[in-house]
Fold:
Amino acid sequence: MVTFTPEIFSRALFTVAAGGGSFPPALQGVLMRQVRWTHREVLTPRGLSASAVSPRELDVLRLVAEGEGLAKIAVKLSYSERTIKNVLHSLMKRMNLHNRAHLVSFAIRTGLI
Structure:
């Protein structure tokens, strides 16, 4: 278990506020194990890598997760509704997911969004 003292918290807060990063060394191993697990158990079985989702796909996925409809997503991203449907279909097929709810759930659980 990691204990954060006020001094550690304060130092981390100032580092982050200055644009830096702060990650306790004791948690680095936990993070690496989680990354390895995600790669092995989630991405690899679906034929994906950590960078397998394009920025456009992420934009569409985030908007779907926010509850936006296809027409509104198309307008926001300056694509046709057909393109938005194709992006979603491609993601679901590539990840072997059944519907948009399954896609959003998967994206949240795996940290894509």
Summary: The helical segments are 6-17, 25-43, 55-65, 70-77, 81-95, 100-109. Residues 55-109 form a domain with the Arc Repressor Mutant, subunit A fold (CATH 1.10.10.10). The chain is about 65% helix and 0% strand.
